[in-house]
Amino acid sequence: MNKYTRQTLVLLIGLTVIWQASGQRKIASYEQYIDQYNHLAAEQEKKYNIPASIKLAQAILESGAGRARLAREANNHFGIKCHRDWKGKKAYHDDDLRNECFRRYGSVKDSYEDHSRFLSERPRYAKLFTLNKKDYRGWAKGLQQCGYATDRAYANKLIKLIEDYELYLYDMGGKSGNKVSSAKKKASKKKLKKGSPQKKTPPANDGKRLLPRNVYKTYGLIYTVARYDDSFAQIADDLGFKTKDLARYNEVPEDFPLRQGDIIYLEKKKKKADMPNLFHQVQIGESMHSISQYYGIRVKSLYKLNRKEPDYVPVEGETLKLR
């Protein structure tokens, strides 16, 4: 599965990309895939409690947005191999070994359904189903830890796809698998339900009380901490900010889902980390954005400091410069 995933990524080189105002480039084939198959992901979420965002991100990554040979010829969008219990049709492709057996499906819908059963019926993935289905970061990290892929950047790649393409909007339930238009994305300010608590919090804390929320200072920056069922709109309302300004300070869309414990800056972040923070070792489930939030530095600055392109995904164990 993993070698085949690498092969599908090669297919994406040279594909048309669309540059957004934020500087993040969007791949047209990804957006087309999302528009075409988001309803299948939403259906599977309702049936199996697997986040639609995770389903879509895995499918895009494993199938090259439906363009890989295995997806085109066998309708296999998740790179699932035959295994001993498979009694259906088969397709053979080179992967970690030559001429490996992969599952062949009659339709893309069958592939989505079988992927859900594959995860829900195997004990090694059982702990994923104890997570909140809106906790896509926990799911991405868990998939890698449970051995779905050997790629050390697998979880981080899923998270980047979900956040770059706002796939988390399909986890909100009210979309009913319909296409989420750009206008709806911009207009949406719904509160999002609880995800997994963020383990890290800023080390410095000389906070003062500002009702109805606590406001703190670290690295010379003013911030607050997201609560259960929180949103940028609610924080802005409580503290007298504009929602768009808070989103801009934190370099995310206004409808970006917040988890309890997330750091929310109330002013623009810095271009480099404060001393003595010189380097950061990447962990499973981290993105360039989450790293930038922890140290109070701008995402673009983090890319620039490390001479990385916008499509770069941090790999577990890798060391990044912070100043």
UniProtKB/TrEMBL annotation:
InterPro entries attached to this UniProt entry: Glycosyl_Hydrolase_73, LysM, LysM_dom_sf, MGlyc_endo_b_GlcNAc-like_dom
GO MF annotation: an example: amidase activity
Matches recorded under Pfam families: Glucosaminidase, LysM
Membrane-traversing stretches: none
Domain LysM: 278-322
Top-level taxonomic group: Bacteria
Renumbered residue ranges of the record's region Disordered: 176-209
Keyword Hydrolase: yes
Segments forming a coiled coil: none
Start-end of Basic residues biased regions: 182-197
Protein name: Peptidoglycan hydrolase
